[in-house]
Design a protein that fits this description.
Layout (H helix, E strand, L loop, with lengths): L6 E7 L2 H7 L5 H12 L1 H19 L1 H11 L3 E6 L10 H19 L6 E3 L1 E2 L8 H10 L4 E4 L2 E2 L2 E2 L6 H10 L2 E4 L15 H4 L1 H15 L2 H4 L4 E4 L10 H10 L19 E3 L5 H11 L4 E2 L13 H7 L4 H15 L5
Parallel strand pairs: 1-2, 2-3, 4-5, 5-8, 8-9, 9-10, 10-11
Antiparallel strand pairs: 6-7
Helix pairs in contact: 1-5, 3-4, 6-7
């Protein structure tokens, strides 16, 4: 039998057309000010240089494919840089933005449709646009959509998102949960805590909203992939289970202990620690963990297969994470 391809489900594309669209619009300046507060000046300067060095890998399909060959990656699931969310945008701009982002991502992936699969964007700040955005992404041949951990005034447990979960479940679309920004704000504005602490915190909060509110009970067929190994939640799920068992308020929204739902979610492998990766596989099952690199950003790994090997998994578990499970989630494109 032919081995399944190696699939990296966490890789990004930069879309200059999106930034051209929002430049100068009311709200952008305030959003940039908030971003500066949350990250601090040192992080912003490092980010500026880091991203500048990586623009070819973020925008040129040929450069991307060459890098994939070096890594031993056969297929990438490419999602827009989370900096393109722009959840501050009004409804009209948000609709133009998601269509532009979906079109540009699909065009980027069309350079090598057998190796590049794409995800679109959903303007979570306008729940009424969520289903049209998903449908637009699917109509362009994308595999689903990427979302953040929340939008202003909306957690993922908000009933306003029920149509999105219904449609994603109905179509089998992938929903890639990738936070951008942490609401702890200035408490994380030094030493890049905004990312090293903020991202796993946001993942844990967002997944907890999906679990405790009963979203995963109502939509057992949802295919949600959580970036960064799901953050702190999978390896600290015992505390959530204890709350569910001992407190009626914690148990009021979902039918099972929170750990039950880890096997209804998918997680990427990007946890930067072989011991944590082994624990993630133990908690969620190898069939729920997918290879992820965060290509090509500095908080990712340039050697996702090496990081996976370091975890010392069984051959069967290694092959599932390497690409076996992802091959079943991403239909072939001939």
């Amino acid at each position: 039998m032919t081995a399944p391809p190696t699939v990296d489900v966490h890789a990004h594309v930069l879309l200059p057309a999106v930034e051209d669209l929002v430049e100068g619009l009311p709200g952008l300046s305030e959003a940039r000010t908030l971003d500066a507060r949350r990250n601090g000046p040192a992080a912003l300067e490092v980010n500026r240089v880091m991203i500048g060095e990586r623009v070819p890998r973020l925008t040129d399909p040929a450069v991307r494919l060459a890098a994939m060959d070096t890594q031993g990656v056969d297929i990438q699931l490419v999602s827009p840089s989370p900096s393109h969310y722009h959840y501050w945008a009004g409804e009209e701009t948000a609709e133009t933005l998601f269509r532009l982002a979906n079109e540009a991502t699909a065009e980027h992936c069309s350079a090598a449709p057998d190796r590049l699969r794409g995800l679109g964007l959903v303007p979570l700040q306008h729940p009424v646009l969520a289903v049209p955005a998903l449908d637009d992404a699917l109509a362009r041949g994308l595999s689903g959509v990427e979302i953040s951990s929340h939008a202003p005034g909306h957690e993922l447990s908000d009933p306003a998102y029920e149509p999105l979960w219904n449609r994603a479940e109905e179509t089998g679309a992938l929903v890639f949960l990738h936070p951008f920004g942490c609401t702890l704000d200035e408490r994380l504005d030094r030493w890049y805590l905004s990312n090293s602490v903020g991202q796993p915190t946001e993942n844990a909060v967002a997944l907890s909203h999906l679990i405790f509110s009963g979203v995963l009970d109502r939509h057992p067929g949802l295919r949600i992939v959580a970036a960064h190994g799901g953050g702190y939640l999978p390896t600290h799920i015992g505390r959530a289970d204890h709350a569910w068992r001992t407190r009626p308020d914690a148990a009021s929204g979902c039918a099972h202990p929170p750990s039950h739902y880890l096997r209804r979610l998918y997680f990427d492998s990007l946890v930067h620690d072989p011991h944590v990766l082994r624990e993630l596989v133990r908690a969620a099952g190898a069939g729920r963990v997918l290879l992820g690199s965060d290509f090509p950003f500095d908080m990712g790994t340039p050697d996702p297969l090496g990081a996976l090997r370091a975890a010392g998994l069984s051959d069967a578990d290694f092959e599932a994470v390497r690409g076996g499970t992802a091959a079943g989630l991403l239909p072939r494109k001939d």
